[in-house]
Amino acid sequence: MPLAATNQGGSPFGMWILLALFILAAYFLIIRPQQRRRKQAEQLQSSIGPGDEVITVAGLYGKVVDIDDKTVTLEVAPGVTNRYARQAIGQVVNPAKEPASESETAATDVVDPD
Question: In 49-83, which positions are buried (b, 16+ CB within 10 angstroms) versus exposed (e)?
């Protein structure tokens, strides 16, 4: 008797468990990491400001000159600017330095007693 002709009449419960395990594995190995990367990219793109040195997803280095809701203007060479979609920014190389607050500058100022 061929092997395919035998029917053991097993419960379909085992098949449902395998299907559920496959769906869980797909969620934790594919969907969840992709959502995390998307959130990180959105945070990066929302934190960009003028003066930041960035790299585009195509590999172009530039300094942010101007930014609005959808576009970023990068200075790629002295006097040469390019306009890109905000989503084209891949990473920030050097963030612009924030101006120090008055209390921090007062604490670091050296007073000459003479």
Answer: eeebbbebeeeeebbbeebeeeebbbeeeeeeeee
